[in-house]
């Protein structure tokens, strides 16, 4: 590789000293070669094998040097590097050697492009690639990603026009770039996305809209609030708990005086609806968490306490921070699973049943470990189910090389007969095989082999997840799962990792869904 760099540098310097047509053509030859490789890959005429990957890595290095030595060739060089960055945009280094090679090519191309991103170059990208043009998709995708955090008026105008883009992937990237901008036109775009989603229009990006309004909660003008208000206040009392969860998330831009009374009354309504309504406890938890974040106080799930606090606050009888009253229970529920205490009465347990669950659990001392990890997991499940009360409902899923459900997603009451049947089923499970955690999650959420979720069959609102090691799939899938699938399902993941061999999957699922994560020794 060093010799290649030296030879190319000499060629480029020669071209600068004697800028004949032949010399210039020699200098930009790596650009043409790289473009040809990309074209043949796009057409399926070339297989991306280790030799091709190595050749392309060398060409990317050569092209970067051309840019440094002959900046007048910037447009051609940038187009070639954009093609590389876009062609391997989704390459995952954890998914095999070819994917790792593609990811390395992408990162090298992006590094080269980012080194040149200034206001002038950003404007060129916006004009050349953001509008619907005859540029290849890969170049457009990479250009839009490079414009992240570029806030020049001309770039904003190009991105706003591209929110009408027909290609869903380009449109999604454009919206992700705009999320969080303090701009009335951007607020209007995301209000439209919410309205489209509520109307059931396909392709609506309500999830990005939620993220946007959470980020702009500190916008002092908030001229979008009158249009957002009916979505939030109506949703808090909706009979569909998923709509209500969305409304809690969308309430963040509102000031305390505008939203606190509605949150407190919504808590009261969901408490009155009770267990027979379904998901009432989960909704109370969502509202309590928002009240706690706004107030700095922990008053539990009692709306009367929250009313008293807010009344005293409005009368000026309380400081803005500090304890409101003594004797408020700090526990959200009596049921505990390895210390986690999720507030829900519709739960699916997803348990690791891989070979490593045979390992002894507990501190090694004079008597050694106390039982197996699997035995402790079963004990914790049964104790939790007994503590949550007979009006609560549950199911069990185990995973090893695949996922396997006890009741196939049908939640059953946590009464004595069902607890006994659950124990019988768990007692015949033998730890063995791998750690296909994703398949366990998909089994619990009724996701089929095509990746489609049967939402009508999903009764649970909370998943309690346990795993003791690196998973078969790694953690790369979690971000898209949370953003696309779980934003619809609204499942809260409470995750337990036994030991220190995790790969980040459990923590990402818990933190990204509003649940909790705990790591324990064992």
Characterization of this structure:
The chain is α/β, with parallel strands linked by helices and 522 residues long. Among the domains are: 115 residues, no CATH class; 175 residues, Rossmann fold (3-Layer(aba) Sandwich). The chain has 22 helices and seven strands. Strands 1, 2, 3, 4, 5, 6 and 7 form a seven-stranded mixed beta sheet that branches. The relative contact order is 0.05.
Distance between the termini: 48 Å
CATH class type of the domain at 346-520: Alpha Beta
- The average pLDDT score comes to 87
Unreliable runs: 1-27, 322-332
SSE sequence, one letter per element = HHHHHHHHHHHHHHHHHEHEEEHHEHEHE
Spatial extent as radius of gyration: 28 Å
Layout of SSEs?
Elements: H1 2-17, H2 21-27, H3 29-43, H4 50-69, H5 74-87, H6 97-114, H7 119-129, H8 137-146, H9 153-161, H10 168-178, H11 184-198, H12 206-215, H13 225-236, H14 241-250, H15 256-277, H16 280-295, H17 303-314, E1 346-352, H18 373-387, E2 393-399, E3 403-405, E4 412-413, H19 416-427, H20 437-444, E5 462-467, H21 478-489, E6 492-498, H22 505-513, E7 516-520
Parallel strand pairs: 1-2, 1-5, 5-6, 6-7
Antiparallel strand pairs: 2-3, 2-4
Summarize the structure.
The protein has 22 helices and 7 strands. The protein has 522 residues and is α/β, with parallel strands linked by helices.
């Amino acid at each position: 590789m060093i010799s290649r760099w030296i030879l190319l540098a000499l060629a480029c310097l020669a071209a600068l000293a004697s800028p004949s047509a032949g010399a210039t053509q020699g200098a930009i030859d790596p650009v043409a070669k790289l473009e040809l490789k990309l074209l043949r890959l796009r057409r399926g005429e070339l297989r991306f094998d280790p030799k091709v990957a190595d050749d392309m890595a060398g060409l990317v290095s050569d092209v970067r040097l051309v840019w440094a030595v002959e900046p007048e060739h910037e447009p051609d060089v940038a187009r070639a590097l954009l093609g590389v960055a876009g062609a391997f945009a989704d390459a995952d280094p954890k998914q095999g050697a070819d994917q790792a090679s593609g990811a390395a090519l992408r990162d090298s191309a992006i590094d080269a492009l980012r080194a040149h991103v200034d206001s002038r170059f950003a404007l060129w990208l916006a004009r050349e690639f953001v509008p619907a043009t005859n540029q290849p998709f890969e170049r457009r995708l990479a250009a839009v990603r490079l414009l992240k955090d570029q806030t020049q008026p001309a770039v904003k105008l190009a991105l706003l026009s591209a929110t009408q883009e027909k290609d869903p992937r380009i449109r999604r990237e454009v919206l992700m770039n705009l999320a969080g901008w303090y701009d009335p036109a951007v607020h209007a775009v995301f209000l439209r996305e919410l309205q489209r989603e509520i109307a059931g229009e396909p392709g609506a990006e309500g999830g990005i809209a939620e993220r946007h309004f959470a980020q702009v909660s500190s916008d002092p003008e908030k001229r979008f609030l009158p249009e957002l208000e009916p979505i939030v206040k109506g949703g808090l009392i909706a009979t569909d708990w998923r709509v209500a969860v969305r409304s809690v998330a969308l309430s963040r831009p509102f000031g305390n005086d505008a939203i606190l009374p509605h949150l407190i009354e919504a808590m009261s309504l969901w408490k009155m609806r009770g267990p027979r309504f379904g998901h009432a406890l989960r909704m109370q938890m969502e509202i309590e968490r928002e009240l706690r974040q706004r107030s700095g106080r922990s008053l539990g799930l009692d709306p009367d306490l929250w009313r008293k606090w807010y009344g005293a606050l409005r009368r000026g009888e309380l400081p803005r921070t500090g304890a409101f009253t003594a004797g408020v229970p700090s526990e959200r529920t009596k049921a505990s699973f390895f210390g986690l205490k999720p507030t829900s009465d519709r739960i699916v347990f997803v348990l690791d049943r891989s070979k490593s669950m045979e390992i002894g659990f507990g501190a090694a001392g004079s008597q050694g470990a106390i039982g197996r990890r699997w035995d402790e997991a079963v004990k914790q499940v049964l104790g939790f189910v007994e503590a949550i009360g007979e009006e609560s409902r549950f199911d069990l899923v185990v995973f090893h090389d695949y996922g396997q459900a006890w009741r196939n997603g049908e939640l059953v009451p946590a009464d004595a007969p069902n607890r006994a049947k659950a124990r019988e089923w768990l007692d015949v499970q033998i730890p063995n095989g791998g750690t296909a955690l994703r398949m366990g999650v998909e089994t619990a959420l009724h996701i089929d082999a095509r990746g489609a979720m049967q939402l009508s069959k999903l009764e649970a609102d909370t998943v309690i997840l346990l795993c003791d090691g690196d998973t078969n799939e790694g953690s790369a899938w979690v971000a898209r799962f949370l953003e696309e699938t779980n934003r619809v399902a609204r499942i809260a993941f409470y995750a337990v990792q036994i030991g220190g061999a995790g790969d980040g999957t459990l923590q990402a699922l818990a933190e990204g869904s509003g649940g909790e994560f705990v790591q324990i020794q064992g």
